[in-house]
Amino acid sequence: MTRISVVIPAKNEAENIVALVEGIDRALALLAPFEIIVVDDCSTDNSVAVLQARATTMPHLRIVRHDRSGGQSAAVQSGVKSATAPVICTLDGDGQNPPEELPKLVAPILNDTTGRIGLVAGQRVGRQDTWSKKWASKFANGLRGWILQDGTRDTGCGLKAFQRQAFLDLPYFDHMHRYLPALFNRDGWQVAHVDVSHRPRGAGRSNYSNIQRALVGIVDLAGVAWLLRRRKKARVLPDTVQGDAK
């Protein structure tokens, strides 16, 4: 049985993606069996071609393709739905999240004896981004943390590990990947945090600008705050269900 599914949302990352999946392959060698799922978000370069060529000698590499560009959260959800393992790891397709961090990231869930850790969130140290991107991220994280009280300083980090079914139980909306700690907390899961390294983008450029993130972030933040206030609070007591289940 596959232990871990690694989900990579990617768009126009032909110059980075093969080196990334090969790095994941080396990093998780001691945690086999695992699978790598790259979700191509309607790339216009030759990402799919280079992945298909690599998959001929890497049978645990799978490719999921969108019929249109849906964004990072849509790609993550498509990958998680296609996954076969109970534990999911995610990282960005641009190569800035070092795959060597994956064993450290997934360890809290694999070693959890309580079954209550739903999410392990990576938090970047020594970020290798432009000054404007780091400033915008710091401001957004500060505002989000103040409003949602999610106890996480860096929700934008692509390195995460979580229980597959717990993720699928979350309410889906575009850009939800930036609010996973608050959403997992909402459903009663414990959230662990791990400091992770960061490296410069190898090639290509980001698919999103600071202005784009800011515009959608205002609406999303209000929506998540509403979801937290309207969560279901009642729970069924154990061993109280009576009658035949049909």
From TrEMBL:
Query: Which terms in the Gene Ontology molecular function aspect does this entry carry?
Result: undecaprenyl-phosphate 4-deoxy-4-formamido-L-arabinose transferase activity
PANTHER family associated with the record: UNDECAPRENYL-PHOSPHATE 4-DEOXY-4-FORMAMIDO-L-ARABINOSE TRANSFERASE, UNDECAPRENYL-PHOSPHATE 4-DEOXY-4-FORMAMIDO-L-ARABINOSE TRANSFERASE-RELATED
Q: Which Gene Ontology BP terms does the record give?
A: lipopolysaccharide biosynthetic process
Gene3D superfamilies reported for this sequence:
Spore Coat Polysaccharide Biosynthesis Protein SpsA, Chain A
> What Pfam families would the database entry show?
Glycos_transf_2
Instruction: Give the signal sequence positions.
Output: none
Spell out the protein name for this chain.
Answer: Dolichol-phosphate mannosyltransferase
Key words of the record: Cell membrane, Glycosyltransferase, Lipopolysaccharide biosynthesis, Membrane, Transferase, Transmembrane, Transmembrane helix
Q: GO CC terms for this protein?
A: plasma membrane
- Outline the extent of the Glycosyltransferase 2-like domain: 5-167
| Presence of keyword Transport | no
- Indicate yes or no for the key word Cell membrane: yes
